[in-house]
Write a structure and sequence with these properties.
This protein is an alpha/beta fold. The protein folds into 2 domains: 180 residues, Rossmann fold (3-Layer(aba) Sandwich); 97 residues, Putative methyltransferase TM0872, insert domain (DNA polymerase, domain 1), CATH 1.10.150.170. The chain is 41% helix and 13% strand. It contains 13 helices and 7 strands. A 7-stranded mixed sheet has the order 3-2-1-4-5-7-6. Helix 11 packs parallel to helix 12. It comes from Sphingobium cupriresistens LL01. It catalyses: cytidine(1402) in 16S rRNA + S-adenosyl-L-methionine = N(4)-methylcytidine(1402) in 16S rRNA + S-adenosyl-L-homocysteine + H(+).
């Protein structure tokens, strides 16, 4: 695929209609797209007459997305979505009506071999979304076997993580995605007819670790709780269980859904007022969307509405 993104090429993000339905945009409202990417959600919000502030920590997305942003009147901000409170405050924005997050790696990043996210094409072993700091090669060539195994197990759910980590350490130094993929495939065994490449879990795990994706998500959820006005809407699309579990637990906790405890134990003191109403039921892609976009198969949308309750000290807890 060409490393240039056409400004005129349509980008239809996953669950777009469902996200817009959850956001229920009223013209003139301020909305945040925490993950601009190719600008699909942001453009749709702007077309619904929202004032849109969009974030991305990837310099490529910022540089190439400016044409789309200018065309739709979107304010494009370079930076992590976890810093949205601070970065919006610099622009005089303290409250917003909606926040959307599309979690994980973008198609643009996956499709570019030069970014090092994919095992399907050879490229430098990078995987950094912000294109700075520790990259995948730095981590794999310096970390201990135990640390590598723990990362692959924790973030990739790879049951044979120790075998993979041992093979990686023995093969160091690693500098290319094709090298890493070959090492993992040899360690785990790979048959051409296998439905899933054995390198999938390892690449996912290293990417999540290098970019601190789960920690960023947790901070972004706290930021959204702070920024949303009463009645403000939060819509989050995730693509695997680690992310979805964090979002589901956050919304459960913040909507007062932690459970009432046992009737055999002393009654607990009333907790903080819920900062979100009971979340809507999780939404997944329709068969029609799956036929158009197979990537939507693993997508889950969770949405909730901000109440008037103030943020409590609980919100800073993991």
């Amino acid at each position: 695929m060409n490393d240039a993104v056409s400004a005129t090429a349509p980008h239809i993000p996953v669950l777009l209609a469902e996200v817009l339905d959850a956001l229920a945009i009223t013209p003139g409202e301020i909305h945040v797209d925490g993950t601009f990417g190719a600008g699909g959600y942001s453009s749709a919000m702007a077309m619904a007459q929202a004032q849109v502030f969009a974030f991305d920590r990837d310099p490529d997305a910022i540089r190439e997305g400016q044409v789309v942003a200018d065309a739709h009147g979107i304010t494009l901000i370079a930076g992590e979505f976890s810093r949205m409170v601070e970065l919006l405050a610099e622009r005089g924005i303290a409250r917003v009506s909606g926040i959307t997050l599309d979690i994980g790696v973008s198609s643009m990043q996956l499709d570019r071999a030069s970014r090092g996210f994919s095992f399907q094409a050879d490229g430098p072993l990078d995987m950094t979304m912000s294109q700075d700091g520790m990259n995948a090669a730095d981590f794999l060539n310096s970390a201990s076997e135990e640390e590598i195994a723990n990362v692959i197990y924790r973030y990739g759910d790879e049951p044979r993580s120790r075998r993979v980590a041992r093979a990686i350490v023995e093969a160091r130094p690693l500098e290319r995605t094709a090298q890493l993929a070959a090492v993992v495939r040899r360690a785990l065994g790979h048959k051409p007819h296998d439905k899933k490449d054995p390198a999938t879990r390892t690449f996912q795990a290293i990417r999540i670790h290098v970019n601190q994706e789960l920690e960023e998500l947790e901070r972004a959820l706290d930021a959204a709780e702070e920024l949303l006005e009463e009645g403000g809407r939060l819509a989050i699309v995730t693509f695997h269980s680690l992310e979805d579990r964090i979002v589901k637990q956050f919304l459960r906790n913040r909507s007062g859904g932690e459970g009432v405890g046992s009737r055999h134990l002393p009654e607990r003191a009333a907790g903080p007022q819920p900062t979100f109403a009971k979340p809507a039921k999780a939404v997944r892609a329709s068969e029609a969307e799956l036929a158009r976009n197979p990537r939507a198969r693993s997508a889950t949308l969770r949405a909730a509405i901000r109440t008037a309750a103030p943020i409590s000290s609980r919100s800073s807890q993991p």
